[in-house]
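Sequence in, structure out. Go.
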Amino acid sequence: MSKKANPVAIGTFVVVALVLAVGAILTLGSGKLFKKTEQFVLYFEGSLSGLDIGAPVELGGIRIGQVSNILLVYDTDDGTITAPVYIEIEQDRMKYAGSKSEGKGMDYHIETGLRAQLQSQSFITGKLKISLVKQPKTPIRLVSSDPEIREVPTIPTLMESLSKSFEDLPFVEIVADLKKITGSFSKLSETGELTELVTYLKETAQSLSEISGSDQIPKILVELQETGESISSLAESPQLMDALREFTATVQSARYLFDYLERHPEALLRGKGGE
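Output:
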């Protein structure tokens, strides 16, 4: 007589088989079974709020991998807390071309400026992604001492860089200088010197504008030019002595003219006859 089959055992077997089948379908559907990935670790200085497992890793706007894990490590020796971010890059999504990178792979790209940076996926959701960017002028900052996994250096986000720049500004000295300048202007305003200074500058600018538009200056320049041309032509003439006497008289007249203009500068605007 054959032993009766146990319904519970059969049911358990069927359930396990179904779970394995579903898992296989999902794995095959995602293609992970046939994907070769390379693991890296990153250490960011700022907050990781908004970065989730599965977040994309991009290079030049193209997704080449994803965040595989985020840990929180508390060092009981010195009390420091670090948050290593592990990423996996699909090898068939990123290739190393050129003879310079032979045998170096990611090391070569890190040496030539490859860095990881947190960037926003969406301003609405606040989700973050990781972008690999070229920043050859930034330092190679390494934190991990684990030789089993390669670390990719990170750089701050734009907002973190701006925040650090503001922190480095000497705000106390700047405020003190502004208070001194404000106090100086306040004193000038109270004594009336500021008003006088502004009025003087306005009058000076107006005078220069009027003189530059006067028709007397072009006339004086023409006369001086004509006098110079006369001297040049007379330099080879037998009547040089007579010309020199005339030139001396002209110079004397010009001196009288300048003396008069110095005493009466308004003559440039209205002419001598306008007194």
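Check: Residues 213-275 form one domain. The longest helix spans residues 7-30.
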